[in-house]
Specification:
The structure holds two protein chains of two kinds. Helix content of chain A is 23%, strand content 35%. In chain A, the strands form four sheets. In chain A, strands 10, 12, 14, 15, 16, 18 and 19 form a seven-stranded mixed beta sheet that branches. Helix content of chain B is 65%, strand content 1%. Chain B contains twelve helices and one strand. By secondary structure, chain B is mostly helical. The chains are: A alpha/beta, B mainly alpha.
Chain lengths: 418, 289
């Protein structure tokens, strides 16, 4: 039977803009003096408008009236824009700071992978750091001792365990730190991928650890900007908007709502010398009609209009396709089709049409970037400027059970009995 | 949102309830005890990290009071000519310095608890009091080393025929050390709690402690203080401790238990107030640092 392990009860967290007081006694005395004499506060910030949620100018509610419960074995995805309150929520849960109102009830030990390497001291050896870091994360000496060999093996630092960690490579350092955190056996695990940026290997490990933890019936809170990962790993989700709980429910509903809310925010990134410039581009379906939704197996057409602003010898044209996790899915170039775009005069305009046949990416949202250039450089590059959806349809995927969302492409196959 | 709909839930179901404000007297000593391994490891870390990659290593523990003593002998003993109650100057100063040093290092180090550990406190929870406690303990280790060195010195002077000898009240020393630790910790955590708001105090502490030493009978015996100022010097809770420490170690003068009782009372009140303030601050200080 599942048990409730976390419950937020009407939790709010208020921060004061700037620091509490002003940081120095003299400023506080100044303020006090100004107050008494009825003048303006000399340390008040001028023209501060808190666009997130303005109370009386001084205070910000990072979280407001958050209530939800979480059972053991559940994997909860926490989704929201930067500044929506995700980190604050995790901070409250990991007891770094206390809520302003409301309360959080927790059953069991919490560990979080955002603490990786906390308290590592460069002068101490790997072994000493394992013990120190383990104790900081809440393990007793006995527990660490019993897992020591496992930790060392998992980290792969092996014979360097008696060397000060300042002599470690950064990879070894992270591996060791992660090994300690991974061997905590918390009932509740917090993974903040947002904070674990950079190291792809580390992220992979963290996600792997998360999966094994949730499989063993423990609870995971997962914060990430990678919606595909969230959808894969989580069962339920909450969407935070401006510090408020905008939605709670099955993870797919949550990510859909989040995507909808964040469409307008993508500003186009553009670069290049502009010796040739893209003037217009459009996405069409196989019938030549403007479209942004396709079924598996359909064809799509991209029409691009460009103008040479200098005389150029030749140019290549290519399309990059990325999914909504910004993973590179496909690259299409004229060179593969032995199609050439030659000798453009200054001011000359051209238009081309590219047809992509047999769309076989897994159902989902995709973005196309357009690139114009040659081996000497980029003329014009517009990132993720075309957005489209692939839907399952009824020509490729006929199984009566749901399509496994981990798959990135849909491969066609023929079957026969022998 | 239907909290009311669960009347069956037992009071012990949740292992932890995170609330906005802890009641003033809720000091979780049991939790601190659970983290005793962490405290021990912090002590070890402080000790190892301090002297790794130094040539002289732990000898520094001894060099520091020794050089200070030599300087005091030159400046206060010979140039200023401050009397030392008939005790060899070296011994007199060194005894005072060793006792005072423990207090000043405790105070200085613990007073930066929140500021120095902001990054680690910002990521992970453990009872914050573990940090200042470990500092007091690791300083106790350095004190012990210096104390042994002091005893060696004392024996040397006794062999040389100086009129000094520990009195029968040496059993008071652990008690005196406890008083020093308690006062250092108490002042330190109060200041560290206040520095989360007022950084000015950081500057005040560093030289304030130095000045404080001159208000304590470290470089002069209490007997040299004119009667009309004695009250003020005795209001300083460190005065009876340092004075008693010298008395029991060197056998000159007399331990005044009344004064010591005052220091004890002072320490208890201070420590209690310190822990209360510390507890209040530790919950939300991350929002202000």
């Amino acid at each position: 039977m599942s048990q409730e392990v976390i419950r937020f009860e009407d939790v709010s967290k208020q921060y004061r803009l700037g620091s509490v007081g002003t940081g120095t006694l003299s400023h506080d005395l100044n303020r006090l003096f100004a107050k008494i004499t009825g003048k303006d506060d000399p340390t008040k910030k001028v023209g501060v408008v808190n666009t997130l949620h303005n109370r009386d100018g001084e205070y910000v509610w990072a979280l407001q009236h958050i209530s939800f419960g979480l059972n053991d074995g559940e994997v909860l995805g926490v989704v929201g824009k930067n500044g929506a309150g995700k980190s604050t929520l995790l901070k409250l849960l990991s007891r770094v700071t206390a809520p302003t109102t409301g309360q959080i009830k927790v059953k069991g030990r919490i560990a979080s992978l955002l603490e990786v390497g906390t308290g590592f001291h460069p002068e101490l050896t790997g072994k000493e750091n394992i013990f120190l870091n383990g104790a900081i994360l809440g393990m007793t000496k006995k527990e660490i001792k019993s897992k020591f060999d496992e930790i060392v093996e998992f980290s792969g630092v092996g014979k360097y365990v008696d060397t000060p960690v300042k002599r470690y490579s950064s990879g070894m350092y992270v591996r060791l730190a992660f090994a300690v955190a991974a061997h905590l056996e918390p009932e509740i695990l917090i993974v903040d991928e947002v904070l674990a940026v950079g190291d792809a290997e580390f992220q992979k490990k963290a996600i792997g650890k998360m999966q094994s933890v949730s499989k063993s019936g423990r609870t995971v809170l997962f914060v990430s900007h990678n919606l595909t990962a969230v959808e894969q790993l989580c069962t339920r989700g909450i969407l935070l908007q401006n510090g408020m709980l905008a939605m709670e429910g099955p993870i797919n509903d949550i990510t859909t709502a989040y995507k909808k809310a964040s469409v307008n925010e993508n500003e186009l990134k553009r670069s290049g010398t502009r010796h040739a410039e893209l003037k217009k581009y459009e996405l069409l379906n196989q019938f030549g009609v403007v479209a942004d939704e396709f079924y598996l197996g359909d064809s799509l057409k991209v029409r691009a209009f460009f103008e040479a602003r200098e005389a150029i010898d030749y140019t290549d044209f290519s399309l990059d396709i990325r999914n909504d996790a910004n993973e590179f899915i496909g690259h299409i170039t004229n060179a593969d089709s032995l199609f050439e775009i030659k000798s453009l005069e200054k001011g000359e305009q051209r238009s081309i049409e590219v047809t992509v046949r047999n769309l076989s990416m897994a159902p989902g949202t995709y973005y196309i970037s357009l690139w114009l250039g040659n081996k000497y450089g980029t003329f014009d590059y517009i990132e993720n400027c075309i957005r489209f959806n692939i839907k399952q349809g009824d020509s490729y995927i006929l199984r009566p059970f749901p399509f496994d969302k981990r798959a990135k492409v849909v491969l066609q196959s023929d079957w026969k009995s022998l | 949102m239907n909290q009311t709909a669960q009347p069956t839930e037992s009071a012990t179901y949740w292992s932890m309830v995170l609330k906005p404000k802890r009641s003033l007297f809720e000091i979780n000593l049991r939790e601190l005890w659970q983290y005793r391994d962490l405290i021990a490891l912090f002590v070890r870390r402080d000790f190892v990290a301090k002297y790794k990659q130094t040539i002289l290593g732990p000898i520094w523990f001894i060099i520091q009071p020794l050089l200070t003593t030599l300087m005091f002998v030159v400046v206060f003993g010979n140039i200023a000519g401050i009397p030392t109650d008939g005790i060899p100057q070296m011994l007199f100063y060194m005894t005072g310095i060793v006792g005072w040093n423990y207090f000043s290092t405790c105070l200085n180090d613990t007073s930066q608890t929140f500021i120095k550990n902001a990054s680690i406190f910002g990521k992970v929870y453990f009872p914050r009091l573990a940090m200042p406690l470990s500092i007091v303990i690791s300083n106790l280790v350095s004190f012990a080393i210096q104390f042994v060195f002091l005893i060696g010195f004392l024996i040397y002077f006794m062999i040389q025929g100086a009129a000094v000898a520990p009195t029968a009240e040496v059993f008071l020393i652990p008690f005196l050390v406890l008083l020093i630790a308690g006062l250092g910790l108490g002042f330190g955590i109060i200041i560290s709690s206040l520095t989360t708001k007022y950084r000015d105090l950081v500057h005040l502490v560093t030289f304030g402690v130095t000045l404080w030493m001159y208000a304590t009978p470290v470089i002069y015996p209490l007997s040299e203080i004119p009667a009309k100022y004695k009250m003020y010097v005795l209001a300083n809770p460190m005065t009876p401790i340092v004075e008693s420490f010298k008395t029991v170690m060197l056998g000159v003068g007399e331990v005044n238990y009344g004064y010591l009782l005052y220091s004890l009372g002072f320490m208890v009140v201070l420590l209690f107030a310190g822990i209360l303030i510390f507890n209040k601050v530790e919950k939300t200080f991350m929002d202000t640092v």
